[in-house]
Amino acid sequence: MADWLSPESVSEVTRVLDLAGVFANGLLGGVLARGRKLDLLGFLLIGVVSGLGGGVIRDVLLQNGPPVALTDYAYLPVAVAGSMLAFAIDLRRQVSGLVFNVLDAAVLSFWAVAGAQMTLAAGLGWLPAVLLGMTTAVGGGAVRDLLLGTTPGILLNGSPLYATVALLVSGVMVICTELGAATIGIVAGVGAGTLVRLTALHRVWVLPGDRDWRPLSALDRLRRREDEVRREDEVGREDGGETEA
Length: 245
Description:
Layout: H1 10-35, H2 40-62, H3 68-71, H4 75-88, H5 98-121, H6 126-147, H7 163-178, H8 182-203, H9 218-244
Helix pairs in contact: 1-2, 1-4, 1-5, 2-4, 2-6, 5-6, 5-7, 5-8, 6-7, 7-8
């Protein structure tokens, strides 16, 4: 185990994590395809896009040769295997279960780590690594949602933290790599990302919407205070009336 997580094996570990994410998101794509009553081709298309989309976007932006999904022949079969498993077995009831949530949180972290590490390996700096780590984690899902005709889940107001968690994981990976502890970055990033994502699901942590961020002027605050005083007076009168009765 120590040899597998040694600094010399970081690239191989990253590949394994990347493939784990491909399979899981191919599976999720198949689950969503079943919900839309798509045929076999639809399962394959949505599953492959879900599993490979984020990595392909990352590799195209890196311009460091052809996308890994086209040069490493393990990627496409793994994505197809995930989508075909969802085609063979109806897993829709398990999508909201604890096991699936843990898998989803772990895969999100896997991909963020993989994207950040690959970006650093290509010679780019910390900011591209953080951004492409997030893109790797959420890109495939966003393209999949667009193909299904829905707004990408990461953009919906009220959705528990997802892209934010990917940014956090990418940041942890970048910091640890810069400190010469890439292996620690993998473990810490995956652990922290999984924990934060599961906590966000449980406690419904969301980013504030536009109304929450609307700045209040002095007039707005005065009107709000007047409304509060008016409500307090109405409640007081109602309580007084009941007491007299």
